[in-house]
Amino acid sequence: MKVLDSRREEPEEFSPLHGNKVYMYVCGPTTYDYSHIGHARTYVAYDVIARYLRYKGYTVFFLMNITDVDDKIIERAAEEGVAPLQLARRFEGYFMEDLRALGITSINYFARASEYMSEIIHLIEALLEKGYAYETSSGVFYNVERFQHYGELSRRRLEELKVHRVEPDPTKRHPVDFALWKKRDTSEFGWDSPWGYGRPGWHVEDVAIILSHVGAQLDIHGGAIELVFPHHEAEVALAEAATGVRPFSKYWLHTGLLTVSGVKMSKSLGNFITIRDALQRVDAETLRLYFLMSHYRSPIDFSWQKLGQAEASLRYLYGALEQLAGAPEADKASGGEVEILTTVAKLRSCFLAAMDNDFNTPEALARLFEMAREVSRLISAQHSVSSETKRQVLSTFRELGGILGILQKEVERPTKTPVNDLVQLIVEVRSELRRNKQYELADRIREGLGRLGIILEDTDTGTKWRQARI
Ligand SMILES: [Zn+2]
Question: Is residue 454 located within the same domain as residue 394?
Fold first, then answer.
């Protein structure tokens, strides 16, 4: 299996640091507002990555932080007149609901920054001792010039960064030096520390959490592409300086940016779409399929129309499964079925090969659609299918769909009774009539069945029927 690390040009063989154990960390939300579909895209991507690693037999520990100590939380809490942690807990609750709704089940542990204050303070102390940090009147800062690898992850040079900054604390040694501890008045939200009352900076929170749960090295560190600088660059500088171990993360995987009609989402532009908004319009599997139709590193330009297309694509896949599940059962497999089973096995290998190539979900999905087409072709060519073929094909769809978190819903399968078989036969005859453009007769059959309480629905993948509810 190959993965493309953000620092490299070419994918490389994936080999975790400790045998078949994979320690994976993804930057979680700052809980001051609802999560939007850009976040959803990132979380779905890592959910699929973790699911696939487990499918491959790795034991994955997937850690995510919750940033519940942050200026944005403090501001919003002040606006609402509530305590910062109270506000943070409320939006954390909504975030967990969103994850559940999206079918994101792969995260093992959520770590709240506010619960790691002594670890954060110890980490800052270690950095001060080793000479990587210094104290000023406004706080404790990380000394970026002291860390020789600063800028490697984001491919930036310190000299170039110097020019653009306006300096709030003139006693800082370098404009890019970032706050590890911000000294604050005791009337504000904060904690006591050896440097006085205050609160930690963002970057140090994540590193303290990783060091306490995983240790000096991760196998995979993930997050959205916009976090590479300064956040991830700072994380590397902090962790490697404190532990003396390199690299902090063996692989860095970043998800591409999600825009709406070419523009980055923002509240002020009114193009901010929450996960909840999206899930009111489509179901979670549709949203997942939509995201996974792009490679996790590629940007996505969101539109409702494209989401609608994803919905139709998912319906097509389910349509093929329903056709298969609903086909009358033959005693033994036909020659055509044996051929289909070979094709399905081949497409399954291609699906897995695509996933092995830096989690190439669009390529993998293309193979899944090909499988659905083959199944539809089989059902149109022959009316009955052996139970063994049904079982094998359906379980392959479930297996591969499970990696992506789609195709897990119950497939409607009409119960086998003489009446059902008879209705199925009439539906097939009617389909034949429609193929021969005898629409008038076909319509009469539909109306006649309608009077008997049997509703027909003509879809792209054939005609479905159901009994009207009495
Ligand atoms: Zn982070």
Answer: no
Same domain, 320 and 390: yes
Q: For residue 177, report the distance from its CA to the centre of ligand 1, in Å.
A: 17
Q: What CATH number does the domain containing 149 carry? A: 3.40.50.620
> 221: CA distance to ligand 1 center in Å?
9
Does residue 181 belong to any structural domain of this protein? no
Tell me how many degrees the CA angle 424-427-428 measures, rounded to the nearest 5. 90
211/320 same-domain check: no
Question: Measured in angstroms, how far is the CA atom of residue 456 from the centroid of ligand 1?
Answer: 52
Kindly indicate the confidence band of residue 159, based on its pLDDT and cuts at 50, 70 and 90: confident
Same domain as 441, residue 353: no
CA 227 – ligand 1 centroid, Å: 8
Q: Are residues 225 and 112 in the same domain?
A: yes
Tell me the DSSP string of 92-160: HHHHHHHHHHTT-----EEEEGGGGHHHHHHHHHHHHHTTSEEE-SSEEEE-GGG-TTTTTTTT--HHH
Distance from the alpha carbon of residue 203 to the mean position of ligand 1, in angstroms? 6
Distance from Cα 404 to the centre of ligand 1, integer Å? 25
Query: What is the number of structural domains in the chain?
Result: 3
**Shared-domain flag, residues 146 and 58:** yes
| pLDDT score of 402 more than 80 | yes
CA of 86 to the centre of ligand 1 (A): 22
- The three state secondary structure string of 394-412 is HHHHHHHHHHHCCCCCCCC
pLDDT in tens, 252-283: 999 999 999 899 887 778 888 999 999 999 99
- pLDDT confidence of 164, banded at 50, 70, 90? low
> Terminal CA-to-CA distance of the chain, rounded, Å?
54
Per-residue pLDDT tens over the stretch 299-315? 999 999 999 999 999 99
User: What is the domain extent for residue 454?
Assistant: 418-467
Cα 358 to ligand 1 centre (Å): 22
Q: Report, as an integer, the average pLDDT of 79-100.
A: 98
Q: Which of 189, 221, 255 is the last residue of a domain?
A: 255
Do 240 and 379 belong to one domain?
no
- Cα 136 to averaged position of ligand 1 atoms, centre (Å): 25
Same domain, 216 and 364: no
Q: What is the pLDDT of residue 167?
A: 63
CA of 263 to the centre of ligand 1 (A): 24
Cβ 236 vs Cβ 207: under 8 Å: no
